Amino acid sequence: MSSFRAENVSAFIKALLDCEKGHAKKALAELAARYPIAITRELNVAKQWIRSRARGTERYGVVASSKAMRLKPHAIDIRVSVDPVHYFLNEKHDTRSSYYLEDAATEFQVQGLELDWA
């Protein structure tokens, strides 16, 4: 909860994961104006969405749960450790950077570091 805009994000995510449609809609409505969230099952759509919204030096990247072993069919293998130096500091053309949206960092690998869009 490091972001000043994130006070209701946890409630929304819990409702979403618990399949509580009404609660999730209400929580999302409270967030939508200041905390943009999009939900899709299409990884390429998500990548395109993030690229189209990031401005200037805003950093973006793929973040996945450290327990997300079932993402391998989608070419997201969290067993491959990202190098934080390359992931967070390299430019958009570098395949090791977060900008490339190829490697996923886990919640532990990004802890204390900043991504504007994930």
What does this structure look like?
By secondary structure, this protein is mainly alpha-helical. The chain has 2 domains: 1-37, no CATH class; 52-118, no CATH class. Helices cover 31% and strands 5% of the residues. The chain is built from 4 helices and 2 strands. It has a two-stranded parallel sheet. α4 (84-89) links the parallel β1 and β2 (104-106). α1 (9-17) packs antiparallel against α2 (21-31). The two termini are 15 Å apart. The model has no long low-confidence stretch (mean pLDDT 89).
Briefly characterize the structure.
The chain is mainly alpha-helical and 118 residues long. The protein has four helices and two strands, in the order αααβαβ.
What keywords describe this structure?
single chain; 118 residues; mainly alpha; two-stranded parallel ribbon; 4 helices; 2 strands
Secondary structure elements and their pairing?
Blueprint: H1 9-17, H2 21-31, H3 43-53, E1 62-64, H4 84-89, E2 104-106
Parallel strand pairs: 1-2
Helix pairs in contact: 1-2
The total number of structural domains is 2
* Total number of helices: 4
What do the pLDDT scores average to? 89
Class from helix and strand fractions: mainly alpha
How far apart the termini lie comes to: 15 Å
Major beta sheet, strand line-up: 1-2
Global geometry: globular
- Could you name the ranges where pLDDT drops below 50 across 5 or more consecutive residues? none
Sheet with the most strands, sense and barrel status:
2 strands, parallel
Order of helices and strands: HHHEHE
Helical percent range?
25-40%
Number of beta strands: 2
Percent of residues in beta strands: 5-15%
| Cα gyration radius (Å) | 15 Å
